[in-house]
Amino acid sequence: MIALSLAEIATVVGGQTYDIPDPSVQVTGPVVRDSREVEPGSLFVAFVGERADGHDYASAVVEAGAAAVLASRPVGVPAIVVDDVQAALGALARHVVERLGATLVALTGSVGKTSSKDLLAQVLRSKAPTVFTPGSLNNEIGLPLTALSATDETRFLVLEMGARGIGHIRYLTGLTPPKIGLVLNVGTAHIGEFGGREQIAQAKGELVESLPADGTAVLNADDRLVRAMASRTKARVLLFGESADADVRAENVRLTEIGQPAFTLHTPSGCSDVTLRLYGEHHVSNALAAAAVAHELGMSADEIARALSDAGTLSRWRMEVTERPDGVTVVNDAYNANPESMRAALRALASMGKGRRTWAVLGHMAELGDEGLAEHDAVGRLAVRLNVSKLVAVGGREASWLQLGAYNEGSWGEESVHVSDAQAAIDLLRSELRPGDVVLVKASRSVGLERVATALLDDSASSSEGQVAGR
């Protein structure tokens, strides 16, 4: 964080200082909510959670070097006490952002937020110091913590914004007002909470409504609900996509033999060829979104193409591709799932697995409401149509809908199986995997299917160690 004294912070957040001998002491380290992340000069934010109360760690964090605690009650060590810790954290983030010389870029969408953010961060980082949301910390706590990690050297601040209801993004943009707003798509993620795609579009569009007149709204030309958001902003509009009228677009889109997307990038400043290190054609749209923002920030087509072609995966369990020594390829996409991302992952599996035996180990997609049965059934059917060799549906009722969809799609049904949990899937794969197989693992985060991918890779590591030991 930019250096601020405890007295300054107390004024910004409207708090009272307690047990602070010298209010001029500065916070020079990061602002953290996890006591294990405290460094000398940190500000520790004490949240009261369901399982732990941050106030209980106050003495320990000060002993570890924290300058003070942001708390809702006195804790016997240097503290700034406020009525609402979350509101105070947001106020501090707003103050710091206003003092920065950085350009703030915010992005949202139903699917691909984290992958697009990671691509954009890597592209901008090739131009100037860039701070960006780690993982998916895109809510009312994670977003201000990310903003507070920016320093005087930061030139680009890239913030992912999530929403589970109307007004959420409006609140986040109030904490960190963006100059550039990027909307990726409107899909069915969390549709059970929103009630429909039109309501999701209403929520996502709050981002472009927040932009200033001299800002830029970067919109997906291939998504009609996103394109329509142009009427909801006073900012300039820049379109990206594969549509012919997109300002930043892709042509000659294709997949390499191992399933990595390649295309010709067209921007208003020129054209250049891109081959991504990521897997699946769905990443073309993510790359174009990043390219559009980078173009707006002054990068040439060649600079953007080079940076995109060099970019890798920064966040865990999102199309992580690992090949075992025996030739089995494990695709760990188990961080989360919705109908759009599930379809994209299955298509990537089909492309990667040409000429090989493919496995789709899938679990339920959460928060789909009344659409749940139809969406799970459709994913099961798609696995059949893509000629995935075997579907392993993991879990309870929703998993049975996946398996039923595959069974009802045709005679391929005997190649689908429903198992109770991750361990049952692990046991099945251990007994039936053959060298050269490709295994996709994907479900909503609550299912915990990353355990399947981890077990398959641990098996390989243990086998390799055993072979070395036996030599």
The low-confidence runs, each spanning 5 or more residues with pLDDT under 50, are 466-471
* End-to-end gap: 53 Å
Number of strands: 22
Write down the overall mean pLDDT.
93
Tell me the overall shape: globular
- What fraction strand? 15-25%
Structural class: alpha/beta
How much is the radius of gyration in Å? 24 Å
The biggest sheet, with number of strands, parallel, antiparallel or mixed sense and barrel status, is:
9 strands, mixed
Please, how many helices? 17
The percent range for helix content is: 25-40%
* Sequence of strands across the biggest β-sheet: 9-10-8-11-12-13-14-15-16
Summary, kept brief:
With 471 residues, the protein is of the alpha/beta class. The chain is built from 17 helices and 22 strands.
What does this molecule look like?
With 471 residues, the chain is α/β, with parallel strands linked by helices. Helices cover 37% and strands 21% of the residues. The protein has 17 helices and 22 strands. The protein has helices at residues 6-13, 58-63, 85-99, 113-125, 142-148, 168-175, 191-194, 197-204, 206-209, 224-227, 283-296, 301-310, 339-352, 372-385, 397-409, 422-432, 450-470; strands at residues 4-5, 16-18, 26-27, 31-32, 43-45, 68-71, 79-81, 103-108, 130-132, 156-160, 180-183, 216-220, 236-241, 248-255, 261-267, 270-275, 320-323, 329-332, 358-363, 390-394, 416-419, 438-442. Helix 4 (113-125) crosses helix 12 and helix 16 (422-432) crosses helix 17. It starts with a strand and ends with a helix. Mean pLDDT is 93; it is low at 466-471.
